[in-house]
Specification:
By secondary structure, the protein is mainly alpha-helical. The chain is built from 3 helices and 2 strands; from the N terminus they run αβαβα. The chain has a two-stranded parallel ribbon with strand order 1-2. α2 links the parallel β1 and β2. It starts with 15 loop residues before the first helix and ends in a 5-residue tail after the last helix.
Length: about 110
């Protein structure tokens, strides 16, 4: 399994709060950088997950890009304190674990 992250409105850098949460959870952050959806070759992906229920991923990418889609509606911690970032990171880990088990990739 290979995963990538991109945003609808990239900030140009990974937030310090995100990096701190990753370090706290012992998740490697080396090489992470801010990127948008169109910075990726979307034809290569099997599944696109939107964390923002209000962002129209399917409409933005267009009908010619075929992919499975899930909407997780996870809050953006931007501007929040360290605990909010950590809470969102833990929620993402839980959802990713559920997805991997559902897809037969996890134990």
């Amino acid at each position: 399994v290979e995963a990538f992250s991109a945003g609808g409105a990239p900030m140009g850098s990974v937030s310090e709060g995100s990096l701190r949460a990753l370090r706290t959870l012992n998740i490697a952050a080396r090489g992470l950088h801010s990127k948008g959806l169109f910075d990726l070759e979307l034809d290569d992906y099997d599944l696109v997950i939107s964390l923002d229920a209000d962002f129209p991923v399917k409409r933005v990418l267009g009908p010619e890009v075929e992919f499975r889609y899930e909407d997780w509606d996870i809050p953006d911690p931007l501007g929040g304190d360290a605990e909010e970032y950590l809470e969102v990171a833990r929620l993402l880990l839980e959802r990713i674990g559920d997805l991997l088990r559902r897809e037969g990739c996890g134990s």
